[in-house]
Hints:
This protein is α+β, with helices and mostly antiparallel strands. Among the domains are: 16-87, no CATH class; 197-327, CATH 2.40.50.90. The protein has helices at 5-36, 39-64, 67-88, 242-253, 287-293, 309-322, and strands at residues 119-124, 160-167, 172-174, 197-206, 209-214, 217-223, 226-227, 257-261, 275-280, 298-299. The strands form three sheets. It has a five-stranded mixed beta barrel. The longest helix has 32 residues, at 5-36. The relative contact order is 0.10. Mean pLDDT is 76; it is low at 105-169, 171-188 and 339-343.
Amino acid sequence: MYNNNNKNNMGCCLFGLIIGLVTSIGLLIYRIILFLLPLIPWVIKGLYYFIAWPFLAFEYGWNRGGVWRIIALTGGVLFGVAMLVAVLTAPPPAPTSPPTRTVIVVTATPSPSPTAVPVTNTVLVPTDTPSAPPPTELPTAVGATSVPATLVPTVAQADVATATVAPQPDAVAPQPDAVAPQPDAVAPNAAIPANAIAVTVKRVVDGDTIHVLLDNNDVTIRMIGIDTPETVDPRKPVQCFGKEASNHARQLLNGATVYLEIDDSQGDYDKYNRLLSYIWMSDGRMFNQVMIAEGYAFEYTYNRPYKYQAQFKDAQRNAQTQQLGLWAPTTCNGVASDIIPVP
């Protein structure tokens, strides 16, 4: 017959061991506290003398009078001057440089078809028809196609044309004149600099400030070279054409993947710890210049000239001449209600 007494005895022994261990730990803590209590007044007194010794030395010399008073006064003045110099000459903390990423683009080369069957292919044809230089050009990387900023078209992809391909013995090749180039076509991503950092737009604050997700961190971006009418500054009323500029920025950027270009001439961060950058959209256009060219923003130079200053100024003159956006007499006529640019 099964006996349950052994199980009960083991439970009692385990409970007794736990009680004994807890009691021992509590007794040890109690003894440590009793040992440290007499030392607390001495520690406090030592900290007091460590901190207050200059003032106590001054008081001692002042109370003795005579030459000691002069020594105390001179020492106090020198000590105060030394502390003031140390505070004023302390170097400011260096800003953290933004992280960089290396983007590797791999292009697959199609292999020849093993069969000689007539095929009709759809071919992407980015055209490169030369034309006279437009009044304003978006800044582009080396070898990229320029985009007139006055038109600022929305280009999502290259023009698509259908070509008939004649069968060859071991390969399928397009006929020489089957596809005619289309005017004003722009290859996607053609203008984005190679060193740009890809990020996702998390939130649009207004026309010149956004939040992006960079390495899983929420980073505030202040765009270089532009200033839009204020809409969120609590010190100012909503300015003329501010809501239109903010709404246009949200239409173009909300949730989109964009590319940040840092300008060494402007530094990494402004005084509000916002990362300074140009914003390139995935279609190859620069958002900063698009806002100026379409009349949603003013060109703005803060302290030093920046990389694309000439192009931005040309874009503003063009928008002003055509009376676009905030330059129109029916909107703001180029005045955003006492606008004070913020770098």
